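User: Hello, can you help with two protein structures?

Assistant: Certainly.
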Amino acid sequence: MQELSCVLLCGGRSSRMQVQGQQFDKALLPFKDTTLLEHQHTKLKQWFQRVYISCKQPYSFKAAYLIEATSHFNPLVGMAHALSTLKAPLIFIPVDMPFISKESLLKLYENRPKACLIYLKSAEGFYLPNLCQLTALSYLKEALASGQEKVGALFQQIGFGVEVQESKEFSNLNTYIDYTEALNG
């Protein structure tokens, strides 16, 4: 897996958290003596050749950024932009999934010959993280161009789902309650 690069997906609509009527960027929330973004970046740099951050505008944190030059919010936008720019297979991970393990990401890597897109599949129905081959780029672009932007529908159509059991590892910090539980547990 060390020969692959990883892309942290930040800056989409789901990267915002509402707390008492105010919007916060999840990537900048405090997490384990730093920010969630820096925590994820540092952790993933141990496992991957290179870690990129896909977002609408760069953060003050020094890193390799892939800036999405569109106001359109959808993970498929960041994925298509990263594949077009880097022209290599990539593992995509949302910034708000801090408990993902190397073992789960290895499952993506081990299953890479089975389809152009390999995702972790659970009963809860999440589709990120995933490993996307360069051959998936045309499908991503076609989906965006046609307005078919449901990540799950596209992944089921072109991808291979690796079954995983529900656990804290696959929890997203979607709400303030999720975030505070992650800090305390």
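That covers the first. Now for the second protein you mentioned:
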Amino acid sequence: MARSDQAKPLAPLSGYYPRSDEVDEAISAEFDLHRRYCCLRCCGCAAAVLLILLVTILVLFFTVLHIKDPVLTADRVAFHQLLRSTSLGVSNFTVEITVSVRNPNAAAFHYENMTTRLYYGGDVVGEGEVVPPGKVGARGRKQLNVTVEVEGGKVAGAEPFAGDWRSGNLSFHSETRVPGRVKLTDAIKKKLVARLDCDLTYVVDTQQVIKN
């Protein structure tokens, strides 16, 4: 009886086997896809970093690096030697004004001087100046005192004086100017002029000053 375990020829394997050039093309395509993905990710990261830098620069520009004008405030105003008995035709008097200078900047405000003019009836009747120059520290505050010498004859000769004197209320207007500069860096610096305009009413009987 013939043996049944005689070797049989192997059956051919089924399926498709790509050629070597097709394999190379597939690998190249996958590499290109991966490279494009990496490029897009790098570009996205770079764009995000640039956006953060831009936002940071804008925030700094509008806060720390933005130079603002100093703020002036009239803390105290006092009239001296101006009484009911004063003969304004020949007698002068003085006005003492205390002004606070507030510097909102991140660098010192270097001022040249402070000049105050006093008006009555639209005309200048006195002027005072603070010298020498000085500075107000970063985000600091400083008080400056100025004494204005007022010519009584100019006040008495003004058109509204007769009526104001009878009523006991004299209306003045003061203008204070403080020129200076703020320097954050060599490239970021600016000249400034701080200003304060104030209407003053002097009550002769009580010597009270009302600031408007």
